[in-house]
Task: structure prediction
Amino acid sequence: MALINEVIPRQNFELVRDKIGEILAIEFAAQFALTSNAELNATVHVERIVPFDNTEMPCINVLLSRGNFDNMTAKKSDGTYQFNIDVYAKSKSSENQNGDSRASFIMQKMAGMVMAILENPRYRTLAFAPPSVAHTQVSEIAISDPANNQDAESVMMGRLTFQVRINERVELLTANPIEGYETSVTLSETEKGYVFTKFP
Result:
């Protein structure tokens, strides 16, 4: 006979993972609206394992990598979670520039935007009400070796390592950051995984 007789809620790391994706989807949509630059019109996925094909780029994938716990007491513990944020970009070669160079520039621009968004003071607590999130930090950017393929388009991928420290066993309180924004997003399930989609 089960001893837990209530539904176990979503854990804090799940809420944080989805909030990261939501924030990136909103802010990249806003940047695309400001610049009309199709190279920045990225779709944002969460825990997508199926490989991306060229028709889906530019795109971003948010994945939980690990969690470490300390300061444990009978009532609480602190958790430091590491999230991998993968950024993909593509480009074709032209007379003036190689596709791999251009794809690399686009990917690095997107990686810089992800870092600027997540380190912006407005998102220091990822829009959760204080003191839910104690600390956030982009700790690393790594660039993958380009794939050796014969496609007409070159693809580049970069990975940002994002660390979030939260108090476990305490419910995260969301301070809705979407109010006042014209664009909102929802997490939808597709055949290839979960993706944030924009809706009016």
User: Anything to note?
Assistant: The longest helix spans residues 12-35. The chain has a mean pLDDT of 84.
